[in-house]
Amino acid sequence: MSSAVVVSSENLDEKQQSVSTPVVHAAEKKVNLLGMSRAELEKFFEDLGEKKFRAGQVMKWVHQYFVTDFAEMSNISGKLREKLEKICEIKAPEVVHRNYSKDGTRKWVFRVGDGEGSLVETVLIPAEDKTGARKTLCISSQVGCALDCSFCSTGKQGFQRDLTPAEIIGQLWMANYSYMEDVPVAERERTVTNVVMMGMGEPLLNYDAVLSSMQLMLDDFAYGMSKRRVTLSTSGVVPKIDQLAQDIDVALAISLHAPNDELRNELVPINKKYPLQQLIAACQRYLAKDGNESSRRHVTIEYVMLDGVNDKPEHAQQLLKLLKNLPSKINLIPFNPFPHAPYGRSSRNRIIAFQKTLSDAGFVCTIRQTRGDDIDAACGQLVGQVADRTRRAEQWKKKVAQRQEILRTQG
Ligand code: SF4
Predict the structure, then answer these.
(1) What is the DSSP string of 80-115?
(2) Ligand 1 pocket, mutate which of 204, 241, 255 (most atoms under 8 A from CB)
(3) What pTM, to 2 d.p., does this model score?
(4) Catalytic positions, written as ranges
(5) Class of the domain covering 31-89
């Protein structure tokens, strides 16, 4: 089989590139092996009359050496390679656009599905930490999102569909591959060190596909990532947090963004279904499941700082009260405004004061560095630009224009 995915190697210094990915489309009905878990691949090979260990061999070629051409899988017999070539493929989502920022942030827009398909985005953020250079990939789990958080660019695009495991793990595959397009196979190494399921979509509403993708991330035959380096971030789908606790050990983050129900109902509407008390209790149960695991010693609280909305001293006090019995680390996120956003970013002084209140009370509280401002790193922003085509986005713009008109006439 010829290479299923080849990204053109253009000048990567250029800020922004529309990429026409040369993809050799395989004949229809070939099975895509990219998103298969070890158990699924073992069954696949057994059904072919082969030994189970072939699964591990193929997984290593695909996820550790980023080989998509069966002809290159040298420890597999020629006969089996020919068979695989005929009936299956390894196919990552197609890159239609990419931005590489000067600060090292990389962002891709992928086309998923056939024909025109749909667009999702993935962002990689580099940082230095105690253990060295960290490269964190923020992965999408759905095309758009149904939850419509009021500060979120993705929510404005509406929900289209869930991603498949191949489309989810394909984002990790492609981000790694982007660093080794010209590296010989034997010298290829995985570059992405951390994953957060925090891109477009609510991961717990695409539970099975997200779970099996995270299992691949942890699998030693695939990415072999440590549990504490894989984080699932949810807006608070309480029953699924409990299910997750049973199914896998990964780190948990909560998109909280408000310290009381009234405000959270407005910013994160799923709060009306699962209010704060229920959410905090679910987090406590998650940690209690195996509190000694390094991935489960605390929950990360994500809190976007919206000017004059949730950033006042009283909000910091309410947050302290809310989190007093939940081991947590708080990450304050300066809002990254998108076109027609109804909010502004809190001032630096306001954010620092908010952080101080939490730190003084003993919480580890960090301020997320704004990265990739030059490439529109806010979730959903780039797809919104590449294809702003849903009715909801249009309606949203109209609403904002109406509101501005009212303010103008009120003087
Ligand atoms: S913040 Fe997350 S859950 Fe809320 S609308 Fe955006 S993608 Fe969906």
Answers:
(1) HHHHHHHHEE--PPEEEEEEE-TTS-EEEEEEESST
(2) 255
(3) 0.84
(4) 121, 379
(5) mainly alpha
